Task: structure prediction
Amino acid sequence: MRGSADLLGAYRPGGSPIHRVPLGVKAATVVVLSLTLLILRSLPLLGTALILILGMYAAARLLQESWRPLKVMWPVLLLLGAFQAWSNGPAAALLVVGNIVACVAAARLLILTTPPQELLDGLVALARPLRFLGADPERFGLTLALMMRSIPFLLDSAQEVRHSAMARGLERNPRALTVPVVIRAVAYAQQTGDALAARGIGEAAGSPGPGPGPGQVNP
Result:
């Protein structure tokens, strides 16, 4: 199932110049580029940014990956563009849709060219200054890792259920589309929780065990 991978992306190993750029530089570039597009809202700037992003995809030897998010996003982009064209004119529609595409494409290139562990380590490093507020960077990193695994699973599960319902002529039946997805999600969460518990993850250190039952006293 490629739907989630088309939008979120998955690491593509390589030795291109873009792959070798440090994570901090790539992340800062994505943030600056996105903020500049969203704040200045300029069509010439948008065109320049799209050319720059396509050039970086080409430098990473991933040019064929640049258009894949559109396979997933096009219905939403079409509706959003139509609404913007109706309310604010064609130029505004092109600007809004183009900015979204550019920001998603830039962020996806970062994911495609950065090993997952390096990406998680970078996010955990960003959370370390918040330790004095009670934040747990390692737990934060574990949460992100679980999220990165869970979202593609849930999206693919929903797509599988939809295809199964269509094969049985039940694509308009809400029960046939939702109940299997919920059951799969609960089972996946239970399996994940059991795996974490088996490794002693998620339990507070020194947490007290269960109290005495009825008719029992503490030794």
Observations:
- DSSP finds nine helices and no strands in the chain.
- Confidence is low (pLDDT under 50) at residues 204-219.
- Residues 6 and 203 are 36 Å apart (CA to CA).
